[in-house]
Amino acid sequence: MEKIKKYWFLIGLVTVFASVFFDKTGLLSLIGVFLKKNHGPDFIIFIIFFLSGVILEIENLKQGIKDIKITFLTLFIIFIFSPIVALLLIKISPVETGIIIGIFLVAVMPTTLSSGVVMTQTAGGNMAHALFITVLANFISIVTIPFSLAILLSFLGKQTMVEFNQIAIIKKLCFLVLFPMLIGMNVKIIFKTIKNKIKQKIQITNQIFVILMIFIAGSGTKKIFFEKNEIIFKVLCMVILFHILLLCCAFLLSYIFKIKKGKRESLIFMGSQKTLPLSVILQLTLFPEYKTALLVCVMHHIIHLIIDGYIAVKLGHKLTILKND
Question: Which of 103, 204, 230, 270 is the most buried if burial means most Cβ atoms within 10 Å?
Answer without folding.
Answer: 270
